[in-house]
Each structure stands twice: as C-alpha cells, then as structure tokens.
UniProtKB/TrEMBL annotation:
Belongs to the chloride channel (TC 2.A.49) family. Keywords: CBS domain, Chloride, Ion transport, Membrane, Transmembrane, Transmembrane helix, Transport. SUPFAM superfamilies: CBS-domain pair (SSF54631), Clc chloride channel (SSF81340). One of its GO terms (molecular function) is chloride channel activity. Residues 1-12 have a biased composition (Polar residues). The gene is ceclc-5. It comes from the Eukaryota. It comes from Caenorhabditis elegans. This is Chloride channel protein. It is found in: Endosome membrane; Membrane. InterPro entries: CBS_dom, CBS_dom_sf, Cl-channel_core, ClC.
Amino acid sequence: MERAGRSSTLGSTDDVELEPSGTSATIHLDMTAGGGSSSSDFNPFGAIDDVRFKTDDDLPDVMAPPFFSKYGDFHTIDWQRDLARDRLRHKMISKKKVDFPLGLLQSGWDAGAGWICVLFVGLAAGATAGIIDIGARWMSDLKTGVCADRFWLDHEHCCWSSNDTFYKDDDCKAWTKWPWMLNYYNSSSFLFLFLEWIFYIGWAVAMSTLAVLFVKIFAPYACGSGIPEIKCILSGFVIRGYLGKWTFIIKSVGLILSSASGLSLGKEGPMVHLACCIGNIFSYLFPKYGLNEAKKREILSASAAAGVSVAFGAPIGGVLFSLEEASYYFPLKTMWRSFFCALVAGIILRFVNPFGSNQTSLFHVDYMMKWTFIELVPFAILGLFGGIIGSLFIFANIRWSRFRKNSKMLGGNPIYEVMLITLVTAAISYFNPFTRKSAQSMIQQLFDRCEDQIDEDSLCDQNKALSIAFGQLLWALIFKFVITIFTFGIKVPCGLFVPSIGMGAIAGRILGITVDQIFRAVQATPGHSDYFTCQIGKDCVMPGLYAMVGAAAVLGGVTRMTVSLVVIMFELTGSLEFIVPTMVATMFSKWIGDGISKMGIYEAHIELNGYPFLDSKGEYPYSTVASQVMRPSIHRQVADEMSMSDLRELKNELSVITESGMTLGDLESLLRQTDFNGFPVVVSQNSMHLVGFIRRDILLALHTARKTQPYVVTNSIAYFSDGVPDAMPGGPAPLRLRKILDMAPMTVTDQTPMETVIDMFRKLGLRHVLVTKNGKVLGIITKKDILQFMRNKNSQ
C-alpha cells in the first residue's frame, strides 16, 4: 500500500490516524486533548504527538459504569454505541419489574426521568431569563441616572411609582440624572450635556470591562453567542467545561453587564447557551442522561428550545428553532419534551413578568389594519435587502474575526479590545436618540403604531419624518451595521439576534416612511388607482409593520432561518395577521443570501473555528467514491525501531492489528506511543481480511489482566479469535480479547458514492467508516477526511 498523499491541516478530534505497531500496523482514532481551556487559544484539532501512560494514575478510570461511556475533551461521541448501551441498561431495568415494589418503582422512575429533567430545566431557564432581563434593564438605565428614592427601580418603573401620571423620556421628577448629583440643573448648558455624556460613556466602559474580566479570569467559555458551539455539541462533539456551572454563572452575570453597557449585541442568543448549561447540570441528577452522552443530547435539545422560548417569549418558535437550526438528532419524543420544556419556561417567565407588561412577547404590537397586495412589492424589497446586508455582514465579520484570531495584538488583549469598542459605541451612540436607548426600547418604538408614540421625536410627525427622523434612522442603520461587525465575537457574552432585528427594523421603518410618502403623493393626485385608495396608517402602509417585516428579513439573511424565524416573529409580536408578509420577506432573504453565500453566520463561525461539523442541510457537490476520500492502508516497519520524527511523519497513514501474533507488550507499546481511540483487527497482514474493531478500551483489559492473572506477562500472545492454543508448560499464558472486539464495525466498499457515506455520518452519527474491497481493509474515512477533502476542492 502507498502512503496517503494528502497533508492534514484540520486534524479531527476523532480522526483515524496511522502509526506503526510492532510487526503490524494499526488504525487509530485521534484522542486529542486540545490544550488549555481558554477559548482564545482553543484548537480542537491540535494533535498530541506522544501521549504515554507511565503510571497507574495516568490510566483511564476503570471504575466507569458498564452501561455508560466516557469521552475525553474535544472528542466526538459514538452515537450508535451509546444508544446500544442505553438499550442494554433499559433491558436490565425492565427485568427488575417483577421485584415488587422496588423494581416497579425503579422502572417508573426511569420512564419519567426525562420529563422530570426537562421540567427542572424549564423552571430554571424561566427564572434565569427573568433575573437577567430585570438586571439588564436596571443596569442599562444606570448610564443616565438613578431612582433616588428607590434605587432598585429602572427608569420606567421609577416614573410609574411617582405621582407623575404622564411623562416623556426626560420629564420624570423621581428619576435623578447624574449631573443633578453634582448640582448642575441647567439641562441646556454645555457643561450639563458634557457631564451626561461622560457618565454615559463611563458607566458603559465600566460594565463591559467588568464583564470581560469575569470571562477572562473565571470562565473563558462564557464569551460569545455560544450557538455555533451548541450546534457542534448537539451533533456529538464534546467540549468539557463549556456547559459547566462556572460557565453558567459567569455568562449570566456577564450577559447582564454586556447588554446593559450599550454594546451592539443581544442577550437572546446566549440564552440558548445558558439553557443548555442548565440542561447539562440537571442531567447529572439522572445518570440515564448525565452519564450517556447520546442521551444527554436529548435533554440539551429540549434546553435549546427553552432558551429561545424565554429569550423571545416564543415556545413554539423555540421548538422549531431546536429542530431546524440547533439539533442534529431529534426523535419524536425529544420534540414532545422540547415542547413541554419550552412551555414550562414560558409560564415561569410570564410569572416573573420581567417587562412589567404582563406579556411574554418581547415586542407586542396591535395593528388594527390589513395589508394590501401591492405592499408585497416593498415586502419583497425588504427581503432582498435582508439577504444582501446579511451576506455582507457575514463576510465582513468573518474577515474581522479571522484577523482577530491571527493577530497577537487583538487576540492577546481582549480586555483592551472590549474597552475600545465600548468607548467608540457609547461615544457615538449618545448623540442619536435611536442608538442612545437600549436596543429593546428602540425596536419597540420602531414597531409601534403612530398613535402609540407620544414623545416629541415621534416618527409619525410628517414634518420631521422626512428630515430629522429619516436622517437619524439612516445614520443609526449605518452605525449599527458597522459597529456590530466589530462587536460580534469579542470576549464578552454577546448575541446577534437583537442587533439583526434592530438593523432590519430601522431599514423597514425607513422604507415604511418612504412608501407612506409615496401613497400620500399618489392620493393627492386626481384620478389615482383604486389600489392607492385607503386610509394611510389605518387600512394600509403602517410603517411599524414594515419595521417588523424588515427585522425578519435581516435576521433571516444573517442566520438563514426560515420556518422557525417566521414563527418566532409571530410570537415575538403577537401579530398573526401579518405572517404572509413575514414569509415573503424571509423567503426572498433566504434566496438572495444563499445565492451569495451558502453559510449563515453560525455555520461560518463553525468553519472558522475548525469544529468537526457536517451540516445536515448542506450538499456534497462532488462526484466521488469512498476510495478517493479515504486514507489508504500501508505496511510499515516496526514502531520501536522508528524515531519520533518518523512517527509524526506517519500520522496520516493507515495500519492494522492482526488477530493473533502480537504480544501484550506490543499492544502496550502501541498504546503508549499513540493517542488514538481504536484499532481495527485483520486476519493477517498478507490477507488484510477484516475481523473487527478494537477500541482503546483494550487498555483497561490489559491493565486488569496484568493485575488479576499472574501468568499474563509482557510476552503473552494476544488473541482476538476463538481458537486460542493452550499455554506451553512454563511459558506465558495467552490473553483472550475476543469479548471486547467489535465484530460489526461500520464498513463501506471502495466504490460507495460519497453522498451515501456522508448520509451515514449525518444520520447514524458515525465517528469513522472502514473502507473495504472483497472483505479486505483498504482505508478509513472520518469527518476530518470529508471536511478536508471538501476544503481542498473549494480552494481549487
């Protein structure tokens, strides 16, 4: 066999690597640990060249439960093996039903464990979201002042608690501005405005700095949105600590601080990460889920649905988001549990009532009107705009994120980067009334009907709409787009849903104002068409509706969501009448975005970080067969005779173990010199007929055999077959290993189309596939090989 000609720069975490092994070669699955926990230094594919188990302490935990599996950091789980183990565990419990009453109680507890677990997750997710919403709203208002009599109240509730029955943004006696604390009361003076600006910037920088310090010191995984990593985790990737309790605590606190600082980010995306942290923590109360990685992902899928439910007040949208975007494995029972979990989370959020409106919908609107067919044209234009602006944002943000990742100055100084971006954001945002207020308040104002707006900067004043307000909206759109490019990806908890909705709402309101003026101009013309005969703002051309449709268009262009996005927007606003306009804008946004670039923002960040993720919605555009993608098998010299440089050089070569002939010492030497997850077994090096596959669990068997069987020594021959000869008198005892041999490894022939192989990886959750011809092992295919092959093809 000849050596594989491709070099690997991807290095999958469950990659089958090739190393020599005594008189025979072996196939190995990479067990890379990936280094430290800092996300800035995270390289999930970094290989460990020489992992040696020198003492008993270095050996894996031999006390692991027999029905559960353990995986190392940055590994991919074996779905089929874990599900088979769960079936075996369930079979053992079912046999105990006859032991009344304990057996029956244990069986009932096991059957209801999933529902109880998602109930706890829903309760905790709803309470967490309520606390974060209340805390972020209060801290956001601290940038402008404080409620002197009741410091724990935000601006709106402070004014509600006063004797003022009516107030504008700045006219509330109970709310004390910071310059007033310094005895400056002339609000029109330059010094007053300058002090207000300084306090606004100072509070913003202080909050974001505190958030990034918490992340850097206590939980590096608490930064960012978390959705790209959640998608990979739900597909079977293991990232230790990413869903841990410290990540949950720090991300919750950091999310309050970062969203209150006024940065162009949202807290809705990270809520999915927080809900999955809650699901992971509660799953350990139920060993059925906590100790089985495949079953745990059923709880995590339900948790992701609960995260969207509490983020937007959209339980059904959360279930569809988990199904469409997040989950890789989504059986029917998981959908029921996801629905239940999202329902419980929504009820708790309604009980907490963080917005003080007795509503769970984040941006509730009440449009007492209907749309006309001619308005489908501007709705489609908003879809075109959303697809274009979303693709531009993805391109620019990925380029900037790649520069940040490769730059020592930016990558090594996340605190200074956060402080600088916050300073620029706050300093510029202050002078625009739409960017000065929180993103939630801005979006609500843009969605509102004209009769609902009472402030002096009303967008419905026809004299100002085309001049001041129109210019402010245009400037806000440009600023939001540019600053969000640099903000998304910094080392604080930051989401992208609300900034995208904000940009779309601004663009939609601008178009709504324009269409409003066009309709007014046409109606002023004698003999106009009946299509333009309507009461503007009552029967047609509601600018707030355009803002809502624009929000869906831009969010769809950035994330490429479709069905779940429409349902989320419906639940977000409570406007069932306008589903069709939202669907039109979303579909045009999807078509245009996919025409420019196939990947959404989350898929682009997955590729940027090098995660081993095969998108279930992607297509394999090449006409190839398995033999063109596999890494071929070869024959090599004895490993002990080779230097470490030679071993590293042979990383990408395939080898095999024979079913008899290798000694216990040969196997232990192989395991010391490699860091892979498994080895295939063949009849002999000459025939190469496949017998089975042995995982690295063999290390436990060898270690136990040395301790418990005195005649098993280094020279004992290891047998993976039934025919084991008797030990020679005075000689070493043979070592029988057939019981731990996987007799049915997943295989394909060398002429199997790669489309079929990829479907096997996606639908069966495989870690690797052996390639054979007439029963002989030719090579192996892993996720790494597929992703690397596709990358090489795309670069040609």
